[in-house]
Amino acid sequence: xxxxxxxxWRLRAxxxxxxxxxxxxxxxxxxxxxxxxxxxxxxxxxxxxxxxRGELYSFTTLRSAPAxxxxxxxxxxxxxxxxxxxxxxxxxxxxNEDKLTIGMRVExxxxxxxxxxxxxxxxxxxxxxxxxxx
Amino acid sequence: MKPKREVGIVGYGxxxxxxxxxxxxxxxxxxxxxxxxxxxxKAVPGLDEDTITMSVEAARNALAxxxxxxxxxxxxxVGSESHPYAVxxxxxxxxxxxxxxxxxxxxxxxxxxxxxxxxMQAAIALVGSEMTDYxxxxxxxxxxxxxxxxxxxxxxxxxxxxxxxxxxxxxxVLEGSYSYVTDTPDFFRRAYQHYPxxxxxxxxxxxxxxxxxxxxxxxxxxxxxxxxxxxxxxxHQPNAKFPLQAAAQLGFTRDQVAPGLLVNKIGNTYAxxxxxxxxxxxxxxxxxxxILLVSFGSGAGSDAFSxxxxxxxxxxxxxxxxxxxxxxxxxxxxxxxxxxxxxxxVMN
Lengths: 134, 348
Fold this sequence. Notes:
By secondary structure, chain A is mainly beta. In chain A, 9% of the residues lie in helices and 41% in strands.
């Protein structure tokens, strides 16, 4: 039996489309979406789809990967400052470590993140970022 | 075949992964290059890429060019022989990623290398019958070739996505289409098998050439057109030799075929092969150009289409990355990394 399918399903809009939310009171934007505005404590929001464009704020490379990600090691992860404001942490793809520079323009792509339960389980997809000119 | 309502391509998009392996590198490992190599190099998907992720990017490019709300799509169809799941549609995830899920048809098509154009035929019919205004057809593959098999030299990765819609909003209007199919077992993959089987020389004359030539000749006759009426022609491209030979037999010149012939640089992208040739042609075509698109799928059959490019191509084609952007980005890998990327190393 495949376990833990529901948590992946609930997050599909965030993972596939980078959908967060925007505070109706002060226009602050959040990713992932929040229930209380961190800026004005407002509690009314609309969904907001981010453009997926931003710049690389910081990055590092994992050589000893956590369980489920071993096949990708070594791989880089980054903090991406989206053009609309929020900071997102994500795996970086389509780029070699020596080409990464702080401030470089990056864009969101949808990629395979991991496989649950080896070859029998769910394929988990989601956002990663790559250099805009990669 | 012609739909009752005039239909055309409203948006299109390509995708090719960034990794390449040279055919000479495969020959270095296995030998067998005495008769020459079938292509120069082929595209290889990265560890986090598959038919779903590649379809999503190509479809996003198509949506950017179409300039339509994804919620107006009423069908998302993905043609491939490398769907990541045996049971569970690729198309539902693609639709969700585009923001198109909900009131849509979604399905995965399978007809070897013809699955993408089969989806295109169905999308034309859906729009042409006025059941909907917009339908998305994708042909995409991460093709598999058994190590030390002839297919390993050519089995590449990539494809194209097409949004079909009303002719008045199209950047290329469909003039007509035709399909030719027989039961010809030149290539197949049984359930639970990782790699396909093929009939060597049997894949040529009775399969590729018989169906490609019959579809094209019958179509041209029905449309009362000749090769000279077309600026460009795209044929399915399992290697560099077959499409050129078919084009010559049909009376098309190398100049007509060249822009749509990408196999030498990205390999045989199977269900994506003819469709990504078409994206490169659209990237470079002028308004008024007539384009012949002919696919071939083992099993076997061919679909033929004639499109005429409209003025809208000029304002739409640079709204997304061109095919040349994908073919130009390139990281060369050796056979060891290729074996890792293509899951040819068994770890447990």
